[in-house]
Prior knowledge:
By secondary structure, this protein is an alpha+beta fold. The chain has helices spanning 20-26, 31-39, 113-121, 150-155, 231-238; strands at 4-8, 44-46, 49-50, 62-66, 83-87, 91-96, 131-132, 141-147, 160-168, 175-179, 182-187, 190-197, 205-213, 217-224, 262-270, 277-281.
Amino acid sequence: MSKFEDIKIKSIKGLKQPTIYYFLKENSFSEHYIKNLRNISGSIFLNGIKTTIREKIKVGDVISISTSPNKKTDILLCDGDIKILYEDDDYLIVFKPHNLACIPTRSHYTQNLGGQICKYMSTKDENFVLRIINRLDKETAGIVIIAKNIISRNSIKNIYKEYHALCSGILKEDEITINEPIETVTINGINQIKRIVSENGKPAITHVKVLKRFTNSTLISVTLETGRTHQIRVHLSHIGHPLIGDTLYNPDQNNIINHTMLLLKKVSFIHFRTGQKKSIETEETLI
């Protein structure tokens, strides 16, 4: 049986037309989700009466929409010991270890976090749709947030993320900010995996704070103002302190580990149900 969420209309200002469709679009619901609402009868109600997305609305109306009209995620279920850091009706927050892909790929089809999550949720929600809020690179460990429904997916914003990283060499300054644009490398017009600092790139700002200095490396805390792909790895490589274990941006090192020394240590966000700040921190460390 579908679960429903009630949304009270507080304002229709700015809508192209005062209809349920444009209200959902304005509130970040995807076209795919809205299409499923339209195609599945009984997925949407207005003030308790079954209706369609074309229905006009006014302030004070209550829209009731199915939280799971999308087709369930159909991927190979994977075995694995999931380390759950937090769970409620809206979110599942887990720890992803190094060298585990977030989603299935050709080379990681039978073992990935997405497959593990879907297996875990298969006994809780037979129509579960996998919605990973913050994907991490396969080589990166740390906290991953999964939204259990479309409402929680659209309601989570301004997530604070604090990473820990072990970089090569000794950082002299206790705190630095790297403000350098990042561009995707292209060869013959085809985008590559690698990124570089370039004046033609998109703005990227990284804040670095030293936690501990070792003989030939530095443990640092990193926060981001922007979320460019590989931002931490690119910026630290650019200033001459690439991450230990990063074969893409530090290929000349003699690696003694098989993953990048990067960990998403802490996340926090305002939970839309309570209005309270929810902070999650993993006990896992790099050192």
